[in-house]
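User: Can you recover a sequence for this backbone? Please restate the input before giving your answer.

Assistant: Of course. Working from this structure:
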């Protein structure tokens, strides 16, 4: 069967080849500009367009701020899709977190690539050609596993017919408009996981742990030295120019993310994966990436990976700081600041952290603000707090922007930074600080951009995933297979944050699995805030979806908590829907329960 591949899909990779200037007779019909399998065997650049499409559609490649759909944030923009979603508009027809068609369409290109990859002449040197073949196929398998994870995250759920946990219809061959059967049932959640794990195994077998130039044959990984690969050959295929493409280490992290999801309360009945499995997969990523004692290697600046403008500017292409396992390309712009700075800094103040999130930050001594030993003063609520609070959130009296401007968020503030002053003012008494580059001048008349990149996977996420799974599997103090415990991880994360080194609260809960669970979940909430995790975490944990988003009204220096936005979720919304249009078209496609 010959499968046509439209030029429009791979134009980014081939425009220079297909556009000619001037002389073509516009009245003559052009030869149909399609390529089939036989054509691509001698056109590797075209074939790579199929694989390249996986990166164009990378599901972790853009900022989402779905925190607005949780108890961590609201938006001051009435049309924000997450605001609409969380206040009652979420349906199978209106789904801001829908990834069904987008990711499955990109999945098609990966399948097309895998069908033809073995038939393409990738290089004249047969050793190099074989390495290219393995690299490209491993890349495709790893990206397909990533796509599967995100499709399950967004759309897996219990069937409305019998409650069985379902995933997506599994396709490992390309579809064809004329010969394929499109009316397919969804495979089980477990079957989808089985394919994801098989794809990860293929990626690990075909890819090195990391990419980079090597100058000496002794630096070539043993697997390739056994094949007689020279340093020059290795560098040609796996050198600096492909850093931050899918690697064996990234594939391991995707597997660990999927295992954590599968072991979680919302999905555990549909999977044979356990908390112990999830802990071991997370531990493997940490040990493989950071060494045999990974807790000692926690990046001391890892909780501010976005903040140092000069350090980001000086990163070499593809280079990763210690905190970052996988990232996007560097950019220089003022986009996030223009959207989220307070109004007097020429921002729209869009994402407003809630009082709920502010209250989740402990005191610097480690105690929750609600604890009798915390020393929390409601009349002076930001004094003596966990340093992360001021790093991540603009509080009343905080400074922000390149001139360290004092921001007054009070209801009686003299400018538009104050509570509900104008459409770009905060609705909660707080502005987002995390992720913003404070060197940026967002003034439209004299913009000074800043340097940034999107973090795809951070080691802090993996550490916290390990702590969660290890605590559930073995309790707070047991070290498990990899020699470190949930307690060890949380102690390391909190010490980096600036919590008192004695950390009496951690010491008081380290013998209680339930209290440690609460602490681990809270640390995850703080460390990963505004990075798109909370929306998924409260669902996989089956925690309360309907907690009202709160803020603070400050008048005359007095603080009072206010309700800002109610949440309109039902229990079936622990899982997302299959698009209404798809279940309407295909009778075999069963919707999730409640939708």
């Amino acid at each position: 069967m010959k499968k046509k591949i439209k030029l429009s899909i791979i134009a980014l990779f081939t425009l220079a080849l297909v556009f000619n200037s001037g002389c073509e007779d516009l009245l003559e019909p052009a030869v149909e500009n399609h390529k089939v399998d036989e054509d691509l065997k001698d056109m590797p650049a075209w074939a790579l367009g199929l694989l390249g499409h996986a990166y164009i559609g990378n599901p972790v490649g853009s900022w989402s701020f779905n925190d607005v759909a949780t108890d961590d944030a609201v938006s001051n923009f009435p049309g924000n899709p997450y605001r609409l979603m969380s206040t009652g508009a979420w349906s199978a027809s209106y789904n801001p977190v829908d990834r069904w068609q987008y990711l499955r369409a990109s999945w098609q290109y990966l399948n097309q690539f895998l069908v033809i990859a073995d038939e393409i002449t990738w290089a004249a040197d047969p050793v190099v050609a074989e390495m290219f073949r393995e690299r490209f196929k491993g890349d495709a398998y790893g990206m397909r596993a990533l796509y599967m994870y995100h499709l399950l995250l967004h759309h897996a759920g219990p069937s409305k017919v019998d409650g069985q946990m379902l995933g997506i219809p599994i396709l490992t061959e390309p579809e064809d408009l004329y010969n394929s059967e499109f009316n397919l049932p969804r495979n089980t959640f477990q079957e989808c996981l089985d394919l994801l794990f098989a794809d990860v195994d293929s990626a690990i077998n075909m890819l090195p742990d990391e990419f980079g130039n090597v100058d000496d044959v002794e630096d070539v990984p043993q697997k390739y030295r056994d094949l007689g690969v020279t340093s020059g050959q290795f560098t040609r295929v796996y050198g600096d120019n492909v850093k931050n493409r899918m690697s064996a280490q990234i594939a391991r992290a995707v597997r660990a993310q999927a295992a954590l999801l599968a072991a979680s309360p919302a999905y555990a009945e549909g999977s044979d994966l356990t908390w112990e499995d999830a802990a071991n997969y997370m531990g493997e990523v940490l040990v493989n990436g950071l060494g045999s004692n990974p807790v000692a290697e926690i990046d001391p600046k890892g909780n501010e990976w976005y903040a140092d403008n000069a350090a980001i500017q000086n990163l070499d292409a593809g280079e990763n700081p210690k905190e970052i396992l996988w990232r996007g390309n560097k950019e220089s712009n003022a986009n996030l600041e223009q959207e989220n700075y307070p109004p007097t800094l020429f921002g729209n103040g869009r994402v407003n952290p809630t009082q709920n999130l502010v209250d989740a930050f402990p005191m610097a001594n480690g105690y929750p603000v609600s604890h009798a030993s915390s020393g929390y003063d409601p009349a002076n609520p930001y004094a003596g707090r966990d340093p992360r609070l001021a790093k991540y959130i603009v509080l009343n009296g905080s400074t922000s922007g390149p001139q360290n401007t004092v921001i007054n968020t009070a209801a009686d503030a003299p400018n538009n930074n104050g509570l509900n002053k104008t459409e770009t003012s905060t609705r909660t008494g707080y502005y987002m600080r995390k992720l913003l580059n404070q060197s940026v001048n967002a003034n439209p008349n004299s913009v000074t951009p800043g340097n940034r990149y999107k973090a795809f996977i951070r080691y802090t996420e993996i550490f916290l995933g390990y702590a969660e799974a290890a605590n559930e599997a073995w309790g707070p103090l047991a070290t498990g297979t990899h020699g470190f415990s949930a307690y060890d991880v949380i102690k390391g994360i909190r010490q980096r944050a600036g919590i008192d080194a004695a950390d009496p609260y951690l010491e008081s809960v380290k013998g209680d699995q339930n209290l440690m669970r609460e602490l681990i979940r809270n640390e995850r909430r703080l460390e990963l805030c505004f990075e798109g995790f909370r929306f998924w975490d409260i669902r996989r944990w089956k925690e309360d979806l309907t907690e009202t988003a709160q803020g603070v009204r400050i008048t005359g220096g007095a603080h009072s908590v206010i309700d800002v936005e109610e949440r309109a979720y039902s229990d079936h919304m622990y899982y997302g829907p299959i698009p209404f249009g798809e279940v309407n078209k295909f009778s075999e496609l069963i919707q999730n329960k409640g939708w």
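That completes the design. Residues 1-33 have pLDDT under 50 and may be disordered.
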